[in-house]
Design a protein that fits this description.
With about 200 residues, the chain is mostly beta strands. The protein is about 10% helix and about 65% strand. It has a single domain, classed as Porin. The two termini are about 35 Å apart.
Length: about 200
């Protein structure tokens, strides 16, 4: 599944690509392409869900879910940027308790709030299209009230994505983000709009 998603992101970036004309090459860099400066993004997300073994015959199975995210970043030069990200997501979680051959199921709504600090690298493949990778440290709170689950965890995120500039200050983006936190939320897919100041 991860290979399919990564391949799709690369294909989309290639589809957006076109040969730079001499005018493109000589054109003054738009804010969205500048090497330094502040930018922000608003993103919709889909969580992919995950199954987690809680021990003693208890498993949490998370369905795919939905959410929103924001990020604020600063380009520090040479394609690198520092980002602060925050997301909120919800999904349906099934708790399966098995004793010998008998299993009981109980469902609840999971809520996840995540904040992270990331280092990103952006590589322009044409005047309009770019690929990016990033990694960072995250803190996540998890709440599934009907299953009496409330807690928090820390871990690392890793991501790959593509941006396509549609104006001097604006770009559309797609991103696949993985996490080392073991929980029923799982990894995420993002789509959003980036605005460079």
């Amino acid at each position: 599944m991860k290979k399919i998603i990564l391949s799709a992101l690369l294909l989309m970036a290639s589809a957006f690509a076109h040969e730079e004309t001499e005018a493109d090459h000589n054109e003054h860099a738009a804010a969205i392409h500048s090497e330094t400066g502040l930018y922000g993004a608003v993103k919709a997300l889909v969580t992919m869900g995950n199954s987690v073994d809680e021990g003693e015959g208890v498993t949490l199975k998370g369905d795919s879910g939905k959410g929103v995210g924001i990020e604020l970043g600063y380009k520090i030069g040479y394609g690198f940027a520092i980002e602060a990200d925050a997301t909120f997501a919800r999904n349906r979680v099934t708790e399966v308790k098995c004793i010998e051959d008998e299993c009981e199921r109980e469902e609840g709504d999971g809520e996840y709030t995540t904040v992270s600090l990331d280092l990103a690298y952006n590589y322009h493949i044409t005047h309009h299209a770019a690929l990016f990778v990033k990694g960072g440290y995250e803190y996540e709170t998890e709440s599934i009230d009907s299953l009496n689950i409330n807690g928090n965890d820390t871990g690392f995120i890793y991501a790959i994505g593509t941006e396509y500039a549609v104006g001097e200050h604006t770009a559309f983006m797609l991103e696949y983000e993985g996490t080392t936190i073991e929980g029923p939320r799982g990894n995420s897919l993002f789509a959003g709009v980036v605005y460079a100041y």
